[in-house]
Amino acid sequence: MASAETDQTEALFSLKSYHVSEELGFILPDPLEELPPYYQPWMDIALRIPELAQSHELRSRINKMPLLSSNFLQKHKELRLAHLALSMMTMGYVWEEGEKDTVEILPRSLAVPYWEVSQRLGLPPIITHADAVLANWKRKDPDGPFNMENLELLVSLPGGESARGFFLVTLLVELAGVPAVKNIPTVINGVRCGDTEAVARGLEVISRSIEDMTDALKLMQVHVDPSVFYGIMRIYLSGWKDNPCMPKGLVYEGVQTAPMRYSGGSAAQSSLLHCFDELLGVKHEPKSASFLIYMRDYMPPLHKKLINDISLQPSLRSFVQQQDRKDLNNVFDLCVKKLLALRSYHINVVSRFITVPAARARQLRDQNHNSDGEMISRAPTALEERGTGGSSIMSFLKTVRDQTKDTLLPEASREIKHHS
């Protein structure tokens, strides 16, 4: 009897094996602030990227950097800080002179250790959400709250307070999603053993958590200036795949002679929404689905595995429909509606930070304004209609939102279409 109970316990879905923290979800708990002293040449540059880029000295400093072995990086958190520092240096090196003077080769002293660290972590050798957001924070007061006032970045890119705001608000969105992530096993295990109360309870927490994510995202308009984001920061998050500025990609010197292509940082690399889509059964049309699945290659491998394992569980939506209980239907639809509201608000943010400034930049170019006149006119023209991850951003986001709406149960779906 005992062994049967043990088997049942083992069969329960749990977050334990996926590098997910009880308190912080996908966020790396207490990232290291320093690497072993041997790596000081990296940190000396990484901690000064904004000022070195502004004075156009970043490339020359990196070109003089010694080639260091990555073998002295032992712990996971050391590797994560190294990947963050090398990522930020790489983005600065490639984009220091804007879209007109890009590079074709990443120098050996940066490329080789970056490749080695990336291979060990299972991450690509380019900046990712896992670097710039999940592993890029510290508390000013170690005992103080996890909020904007008490948080600071470990490594930054050009953009001043707006760069700080952009990465830290995104971090707070991740934090707001923690209760939802923690309740995914509650819902999955409830479906498996037919416990409708547990499923309803879990979905209630998830819906509140998604609403909190939307509220956290609203801080973006307080802490980030759209013209700074569009005119200065955005290029530093851009990749060398599907980017007309770098059609060949980038050669990682000492790694391989052929150029490699990688997409830039993107909100689509956050594991949160992928988990919600798989849990709720959101079905994306082929083009959107293939981009989202490709973005999973830019996540820590265990987070990607969690998303995949959620997708293999019995269908929550089918379970809710089979139960045919009004309270369960309502709480399922509430979750979908909150996810829909989050995606709608994200479209609003992208419009404010990309679409509107892009139109302004085009207007300035058409009027032949001096390009130094307004910050947004310095932004790369090649990225006007695209996300930094490489997607045609507005059509992609609207398609994903509409497919979320299609996940509503038939009655609620009719209701929402009637009102929209």
Describe the structure.
Helix 2 packs across helix 5, helix 10 runs parallel beside helix 17 and helix 12 crosses helix 17. The N terminus is likely disordered. By secondary structure, the protein is an all-alpha fold. The chain is globular, with a radius of gyration of 22 Å. The strands form two sheets. Strands 1-4 form a two-stranded parallel sheet.
Mean pLDDT: 91
Q: Poorly predicted ranges (pLDDT <50, ≥5 residues)?
A: 1-10
Rg (CA only): 22 Å
Backbone shape? globular
- First-to-last CA distance: 55 Å
Helix content: 55-70%
How many strand elements?
A: 4
Derived from helix and strand composition plus strand pairing, the structural class reads mainly alpha
| Spatial order of strands in the largest sheet | 1-4
Question: What is the H/E string?
Answer: HHHHHEHHEEHHHHHEHHHHHHH
Largest sheet: 2 strands, parallel
Number of helices: 19
- The proportion of residues in beta strands is under 5%
Compact overview of the structure:
The protein is mainly alpha-helical and 420 residues long. The protein contains 19 helices and 4 strands.
Strand and helix layout:
Blueprint: H1 2-11, H2 40-46, H3 49-54, H4 58-63, H5 76-95, E1 105-106, H6 108-121, H7 129-132, E2 138-139, E3 151-152, H8 160-176, H9 178-192, H10 196-217, H11 220-223, H12 226-233, E4 251-252, H13 271-280, H14 286-295, H15 301-311, H16 316-323, H17 326-366, H18 393-405, H19 410-419
Parallel strand pairs: 1-4
Antiparallel strand pairs: 2-3
Helix pairs in contact: 2-5, 5-6, 8-10, 9-10, 10-17, 12-17, 13-15, 17-18
